[in-house]
Amino acid sequence: MAELLIKNGFVVDPSQKMNGDVADIAIRDGTIVEKVGSDAKVIDAKGKVVMPGGVDIHAHVAGPKVNAGRLMRPEDKLFKSPNAQEHYRVEMGFSIPSTFKTGYDYARMGYAFVMEAAMPPLHSPHVHEEIHDTPIIDEAALPVFANNWFVMEYLKKEEIENTAAYVAWLLSATKGYGIKLVNPGGTAAWAWGLNCLSIDDPVPFYDITPAEIIAGLIKTNEYLGLPHSIHIHQNSLGVPGNYKVTLDSLKIAEGVKANNKFDREQVMHSTHIQFHSYGGDSWANFESKAKEVMDYVNTHRNITVDLGCVTLDETTTMTADGPFEHHLNSLNHLKWANTDVELETAAGVVPYVYDKDIKVCGIQWAIGLELGLYAKDPSRTFITTDHPNAGPFTRYPRVIKWLMSQKAREATLDSLKYCSKVIDATDLHGIDTERTLYEIAQMTRTGPAKALGLSHVYGGLGPGLDANVAVYDLDLNNMPTDPEEIEKAFSRALWFVKSGQVVVKDGEITHHGNKRTVWVHAKVRENHQVTRDIQDKFLKNYTLGIGNYPVWDHLAPNPYVIEVDGEA
């Protein structure tokens, strides 16, 4: 039996209420155990911080739009990796890194799991091919549902049972994890060159509104008892004044209780909420409404959010929100790719530069941090950049630095060309909150793991959990006064153990690890109507046969399958 003992570290693990306790972490055969034998390999973590492996609840790391971004932006490869190592696969790309660099960089930061946040079902084999190609880190993918023909037709007639049967079939066919909504109804409207900018705008042809889609998919999710709540990218993303649409969307979840099979309270996860917390009615009077949004989130425990922090980098935006990408292209006039995915969704890709010399970019940067600092419950507020939309995931250590250090925030604020205008439009300058390591662990480990229904696997260091353990060069008895040392520590873990295997030592990759693909198999009673509907649409509308649609097993090797009995 492979045994490992990580000794004498300052353990920061909110799942066990450990806040810097000096303790040992014992590992046997990829699992955390109570104790190991005297001949176990020892890692001396004395004077260092020990945390569970990170869990990224929302990123775009695999699939057709990511690959389209790589193809249309060869200049992104000019950002050479400072971490490239001999004897390992080539690393390239900055905002859209290669699959190998993606796995390596997450591991260097001490992350164990990432959720691919928008999988077009028709292209799920491509998504899983790239997941398979990405080393070390475990992955899952969320199929998109909010503009799907089946879903809109069933929900228009309030057929929750039929919607649930279709969702269960699609999750199994695509080896998906949960229900993702992107611009509900608006992406379907884009086929007519239109959009749904409020939750009450009717979707052309379908005679259903975004509000009805959101409410119906919440009911569907809880009917099935899926491990994760619905995962929603609201309407009107990136538009001044959109905080009202955001609040209207969040209010749909009021009073709804979770089907508590997976020990979660939440029925809605609102993603990259920075892009949805804007005030003003034009870019001229654009301002933050982070406080108004977080005041609501703070008082409603059945909602979780992730931040979508702007990192002030050159990056590549990509989303299933096709009309938004067209709007963004009209603003910056750079490259634009757009596609429609038959019966299911759409997508767009546009490069973007979050420039310190542009007022709006500075305000966006401040809003993301305000949201993280206003959160009363860090275990329901998670650190993301909506990779790569607001910046690359490799900037998570920088976001952590900003959240932990007012000095670091003020230094960046002072570097903005329109510093005074950013101060006038936001509250960031007056916020003296500094997040602790315990709160950072809640925002990057225990919180997202629980929200995903995966706290029995990830996000903690208790016996029985997967042995995903990160050791960082931080001494709780002598924390650095220079905030740059915080970013440096979280960028390159001293050690990272993934599923019991040492994969990082002194910030260098040492092993490709024991990677897994995580997906949900939802069981429902046989539904002949939905079976007929699926067969009929594949005959009449799809360009491929139903037999060629599902993901083959060999594309998702070493799976971790969560069984859900929707009949129970």
Automatic annotation (TrEMBL):
Keywords attached to this entry: Oxidoreductase
InterPro entries: Amidohydro_3 (IPR013108), Formylmethanofuran_DH_asu (IPR012027), Metal-dep_hydrolase_composite (IPR011059), Metal_Hydrolase (IPR032466), Metallo-dep_Hydrolases_sf (IPR050378)
EC number(s) per entry: 1.2.99.5
Residues of the Amidohydrolase domain: 41-504
Any one GO molecular function term: hydrolase activity, acting on carbon-nitrogen (but not peptide) bonds
Keyword ATP-binding belongs to the record: no
Name this polypeptide is given: Formylmethanofuran dehydrogenase subunit a
